[in-house]
Amino acid sequence: MTLDFFMQAAAVANSLFSTCYKYNLQVENASVLLLLAEIYKKSDNAVLGLPYALASQSFCKSFNLDLLEASATLTLAELWLALGSSHAKRALSLVYQCLPMILGHGGLELRARAHITLAKCHLSDPKFSVPEDPEAVLDPLNQATEDLQVLEYHDMAAEAYYLKAMAYNHLGKLDEREEAAACFKEHITALEKPHNEEDSLVY
Questions:
Q1: Which residue spans traverse the membrane (predicted)?
Q2: Which end of the chain, N or C, is surrounded by fewer C-beta atoms within 10 Å?
Q3: What is the per-residue pLDDT for 200?
Q4: ∠ at Cα 200 (196, 202), nearest 5°?
């Protein structure tokens, strides 16, 4: 997706927020702010996304929107992580903060996202050693792939298997690494398939 697409999406979301704010729609306010944070995250503009995630989190706290607050906190963790490995510990702290609510009340997608972000926090931390604590990475990734199998969310599943392959590589478990890499490739192929089908319809 192009930068123009994300900027248009952000403009629409900003307009929607103004409407929600005007009519005092608090839940919608928090949701649209979170949407704006997600738009900037997907457009690789984590710095621009941070204020929106923080604002959404603040709205949620004010109106006791616990699950939405947990979702905003997770997005905040993902944004910090996108800014580089030096923020891995801060991101990890945020994930642990929202994890109980997400695991207790969140849907499969949100749970999978939380598990993947948890593993990424560890793998991004230069002081973390996979051989010393492999379960810290593999347990959440196994849970994520299990949840995503039900949903058939190929993009998230591909990321989870990619991280699993990385972890097994650190552990020197080559068979497991190749198995995870093969699953990664399957999901990437499935992700690209609709685009290929659309291209074939042109001719």
A1: none
A2: C
A3: 46
A4: 125
Q: What is the distance between the alpha carbons of residues 158 and 148, in angstroms, rounded to a whole number? A: 10
Terminal-residue alpha carbon distance, the chain: 23
- What Å distances lie between residue 75 and 18, 69, 203, CA to CA? 22, 10, 41
Alpha carbon 188 to chain centroid, angstroms: 17
Q: Are 106 and 139 in contact (CB under 8 A)?
A: no
Q: How many CB atoms lie within 10 A of CB 185?
A: 14
Distances 130 to 26, 64, 137, 172 between C-alpha atoms, Å: 43, 37, 7, 11
For 79-115, the pLDDT digits (tens) are 999 999 999 999 999 999 999 999 999 999 999 999 9
H or E element at residue 146: helix 135-151
Tokens of 173: 């478990």
Q: How confident is the model at residue 23 (pLDDT cuts 50, 70, 90)?
A: confident
> Looking at beta carbons, which pairs linking 37-40 to residues 24 or more positions away fall under 8 Å?
37/72, 37/75, 37/76, 37/79, 38/75, 39/6, 39/9, 39/10, 39/13, 40/6, 40/10, 40/79
